[in-house]
Specification:
One of its GO terms (molecular function) is hydro-lyase activity. Keywords: Lyase. About 45% of the residues lie in helices and about 15% in strands. It is an alpha/beta fold. It binds hexanoyl-coenzyme A.
Length: about 260
């Protein structure tokens, strides 16, 4: 790949995006956000790709946004920069994103990890929002997402302390999906991605869309939205194939159409 801050590849229908600024524990600078967006949107358009795995290295997923880059910012420069436009576009990726976290996962790094649909973490992973120790607070959804995941009391407790939580704590609070031995995290994430990739792709994306809508919708609105997507899938070839294969007692061959 032609990127400077990330490394990308595709194997067996699974795309891999690896954060690659190891000297600064994968601190996320603005070029990295731009490159991440380019990679995610490219893979989302690429028919060969069925799922995307996002990872860092053994020492760090990412230790936060790049503090060197931010330290002289002011409110007006940040407003004019409008960097969160790119973070917002991350939320429009339709394919499944599986995050594999080793080591530090702090601040903007934690927020990036929370952009993954499924999160696997190493036993030694550490998650936290240390922004409070820098005189700021999360800015890319951390406050909001942590509250929705763990509830307001727990979220406030962690956000006010700014100290790291262990992978086991993150699991207990519903922030991540699985805790895995450090050397196996990426493999397990890829394995999970391959299973999801074998399911009906249109179902995968409409389920993702419906789950996220249900966070903001009322139960009634959510169920109306679900029903439309359920009906929509009956226009797909894969619905015919999936049900025919069941009747014929053979594995379905999904085309994503
Ligand atoms: C820039 C960083 C960095 C960061 C680490 N480094 N985190 N550089 N931005 N967020 C750099 C260090 O300066 C150092 O560079 C090198 O990476 C190795 O880090 P050390 O501190 O020497 O490693 P260690 O002692 O193991 O400590 C690890 C650590 C610590 C506990 C993770 O680095 C740390 O506290 N980092 C900052 C964490 C943080 O505050 N994150 C939130 C950022 S604010 P040199 O050149 O000295 O070797 C944020 C807001 C998001 O994310 C807003 C929305 C996007």
């Amino acid at each position: 790949s032609n990127y400077e801050t990330i490394i990308t590849s595709v194997e067996d229908g699974i795309a891999l995006i690896q954060l690659n600024r190891p000297r600064v524990l994968n601190a996320i600078n603005r070029p990295m956000v731009t490159e991440l967006l380019d990679a995610f949107e490219g893979f989302d358009r690429n028919d060969e790709v069925k799922a995307i795995v996002l990872t860092g290295n053994q020492r760090a997923f990412a230790a936060g946004a790049d503090i060197d880059e931010m330290k002289e910012d002011d409110s007006v420069s940040l407003e004019l920069l409008n960097q969160f436009k790119e973070w917002d576009r991350l939320a429009t990726i339709k394919k499944p994103i599986i995050g594999a976290v080793n080591g530090y996962c702090f601040g903007g790094g934690f927020e990036l990890a929370l952009c993954a649909d499924i999160l696997f973490a190493a036993e030694n992973a550490q998650f936290g929002f240390p922004e409070i120790k820098l005189g700021v607070m999360p800015g890319a959804g951390g406050t909001v997402k942590l509250t929705k995941l763990m509830g307001q009391k727990k979220a406030l407790e962690w956000l006010w302390l700014g100290d790291p939580m262990t992978a086991d704590e993150a699991l207990q609070y519903g922030v991540i999906n699985r805790v895995i031995a450090p050397e196996l995290v990426l493999e397990e994430a890829k394995k999970y991605a391959r299973i999801v990739a074998s399911r009906a792709p249109l179902s995968t994306r409409l389920i993702k869309e419906t789950v996220y809508k249900s966070i903001d919708y009322s139960t009634y609105e959510g169920m109306q939205f679900e029903r439309k997507n359920f009906y929509l899938l009956f226009s797909s070839q894969d619905q015919k194939e999936g049900m025919k294969a069941f009747v014929e007692k053979r594995p379905a061959e999904f085309k994503g159409k």
